[in-house]
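Write out structure tokens for Sensor histidine kinase MtrB.
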Amino acid sequence: MSFRVVTMSVAASLIVLAVTGWLLVDSSSRGILAAKTSQSVSEAAAVMDGMQASLRDADLRTSTVNERLTLLARDAASRGNVGHQYEVVIAGPVSDIASAGVDVASVPDPIRYAVEVGGSEMFTTPTVVRFTDGRADRAGLVVGGALLAPGSGRYPVYFLFLMDQEQQTLQVVQRSALLAAAAFLPLMTGIMYLISLQALRPIRAARETSERIAAGKLDERMAVRGSDDLAGLGRSMNHMADELGRRLEQLEDLSRVQRQFVSDVSHELRTPLTTIRMAVDVLYEGRDALPPLPQRSAELLRQEIDRFEVLLTDLLEISRFDAGAAELQADEVDLAALVAAEVAAQQSLAEAYATTIHVDATGDTRCQVDPRRIRRILSNLLSNAIEHGEGRDVDVTVRANEDAVAVAVRDHGVGFSAAQAHQVFSRFWRADPSRQRTVGGSGLGLSIALENAELHGGWLNAWGRPGHGAQFRLTLPRTPGGIVAESPIPVVPGAGGVR
């Protein structure tokens, strides 16, 4: 931000300097030209008066007008050569008469026309004085008027005033403007940099403080000095941090209360559920002696007790994860063997849905894992694939590399959108809230599976597309807590090996 502030300030200063310099040079040029014009007109008018008097007193009977004009031109040129003030060009009756070495083309045609048709006033215009004797062209000013010869007419006279001194003065003004700009820009840059540091330091401090707060250091606060807007920003930041810390404490307290409530309720329900289970088992075992309606009620009661027990078990498992009490009982097993065992356990469910499970296992899939937790993950993935596979085949793939082993469960059923790939692991989440569950029903299965995978230091990823089914990939390090750079199985079916 400091760079942008300094850059914008310097750019604005350049614009101001350019406009100011242009106005200064233009104003100086106009002033110098106006002063030169006034001085030149006064001097030319004085010379013209003398020439007019001399021409009026001349005896044109003893000399021609052209001869007299030539003498006047020479006399005027001699006086003009003193100090190199001006050159003279007179439009004679035969041809133009000019000072020695002066090109008569130095007098522009517009002023010639103005003098020829004008009255007694003087006319001026800038020009370039050219010479025929090898001298370089020089900037000048033309002052024109007319001599009246008795009985002969008007004879225009043009004075060419050189502007060497004025050009030098203008160059000095231009150099001064450039030097002032060259000195001002570094000074302005340094000043703006210091100002930006002073102005942006509280903003930078606010950013750094907010980053530390975002990193979890909720006791960080900004130092507030003064009563300006930046001090107000600091106070607002500190107030926000106070409120954020207070709200987080409230949320943490609420979360602890909720976790404790779930844990307490789950444990408290264990005892009455055990009593109810015993009574239901008695009724269920003796259902054949009951009338049809009580017999069906005993069967439904047994089913619902089973589902309630699954839900209670899931709640207890979640409460252990929330409390940080979940522990691994790692043992070296063959993941392919665990998959085969769980597939065999799910065969009855697969037959109920007319689903065939295909297993493809290759490579050395031995790893150190908690068999019970891995079976729990596999059970959830397989039951979900069977339930939502719409009777189509389910493919189970087991692969390994040097660092990890992986298993992917692929169904070809209803699937889900790409935006729901992370939501499927949320607690109690359903892709279709109106869908009736026929397997499990707690809504915690995938959440628990993800917790178990992360407890091993592994990953559990989901891929799905509506109408094209879904694939869940479990990747585990060969030893708990090991580093896994790449999974042996792609998360997207048919893709290359990716994280």
